[in-house]
Design brief:
19 helices, globular, two-stranded antiparallel ribbon, 7% strand, alpha+beta, 366 residues, 7 strands, five-stranded mixed sheet
């Protein structure tokens, strides 16, 4: 493996365009030991194998890292327990069988038809308020997911601005690296969010309805599966923020991509039937989730590279979905075959593109 600093994701020029860095890594060091000690993977086949191999590679590296930070700071007299409480049941940090059980419960409670109606209503409301000229991200993309989850979960519509604020604060816990200042902000947001949700869960227990939270509680009751208030708080926090950043990123980068590919834009305007493919292709071409993590559960080898137990792996979905020698480095809204190769997204629950993370059965070998 190469030892030069090929991996520098926080450099300004790489933040603006990481794909040249990904391409160099994929060619020179596809399983790259970074300066921080983690292994960075950029090849489609390698990343796909790791994501599918839940016995040898487990999720939850961000949660474990945060827990170590919180424990260390607790020994120094600092209390950030609210952060780990908020994260205790984030589905993207769970492993089978707990992940499988929670995912099944949420999917049984989730109603695509109801969600579609809520999304359409919110889009109409936002476009009506935007006027002829508006900022796509600030005025439309940012409020849309928060308004949508507020209504899906049965919370008062008037609370969505507060909920957006605290959800954005907790979302920092999923960043690659967190400083002490970051933890202070995450902790404050976690406390505010849990205080709000505690009151809301009290209300819903006394007044169950057809909202997603009530349905999830009923699923646990019907299956005779115990669920604590602490778990329900964390589940609600994750559901609320799961689609937030990914939705904003997809809308913004999707339009930007179309503006930079006028032929594709014209094809979509001429044939709205291409829209479903266009959403999936936008997910592949500019992945809203660029990086996810895994931890090795045992000593093993991956394509001749030794991996030790507890090694952390950084999987670059953005690199894997841009595979030049497989001719996937261009955007094509009309190709169904190309969409079938998109890697599963994390978080899984995003509004307009459930197909994007389910469609992961392609057999490309690169």
């Amino acid at each position: 493996m190469a030892t030069s600093r090929l991996w520098d994701p926080f450099a300004d020029h790489h933040r603006a365009n990481p794909y040249l860095m990904y391409e160099r890594l994929r060619v020179e060091s596809p399983i790259h030991r970074s300066q921080s000690g983690d292994l960075v993977l950029t090849r489609y086949a390698d990343i796909r194998n790791v994501l599918q191999n839940t016995e040898d590679f487990r999720a939850g590296n961000r949660k474990e890292w945060i827990e170590r930070q919180v424990t260390y700071l607790h020994n120094k007299g600092e209390d950030f327990k609210a952060v780990t409480d908020a994260m205790n049941s984030f589905i993207v940090m769970m492993n089978p069988p707990e992940h499988t059980q929670l995912r099944a419960i949420i999917m049984e409670a989730w109603d695509d038809h109801d969600v579609d109606l809520i999304i359409k209503s919110n889009i109409d409301e936002l476009l009506l308020s935007c006027g002829k000229s508006f900022d796509l991200v600030k005025d439309f993309a940012e409020p849309l997911p928060v308004m949508t989850m507020t209504r899906i979960m049965g919370m008062p519509h008037k609370d969505y601005n507060f909920l957006k604020q605290v959800a954005t604060g907790v979302l920092r816990s999923l960043d690659m690296y967190t400083s002490f200042k970051d933890l202070v902000k995450i902790d404050a947001a976690s406390k505010q969010f849990m205080e709000y949700l505690n009151r809301y869960l009290d209300y819903r227990e006394a007044n169950p309805s057809t909202d997603l939270v009530s349905k999830i509680v009923r699923q646990y009751q019907q299956k005779n599966i115990p669920v604590s208030r602490k778990q329900m708080l964390s589940i609600c926090i994750f559901l609320f923020m799961a689609g937030e950043e990914t939705t904003v990123n997809l809308i913004g980068s999707g339009l930007y991509t179309l503006l930079n590919h006028p032929q594709q834009h014209s094809a979509l305007v001429s044939d709205p039937a291409l829209l479903d493919n266009a959403v999936d292709e936008a997910l592949r071409y500019e992945s809203p989730v660029q990086l996810v993590g895994r931890i090795a559960s045992r000593d093993l080898e991956l394509n001749g590279v030794a991996i030790k137990k507890e090694d952390t792996l950084t999987l670059s979905l953005g690199a894997a979905n841009r595979i030049r020698k497989c001719l996937l480095n261009q955007i094509n809204l009309t190709s169904i075959e190309m969409q079938s190769t998109t890697l599963p997204l994390v978080p899984a629950f995003t509004f307009a593109w459930d197909r994007g993370w389910q469609r992961n059965s392609g057999s490309w070998r690169c």
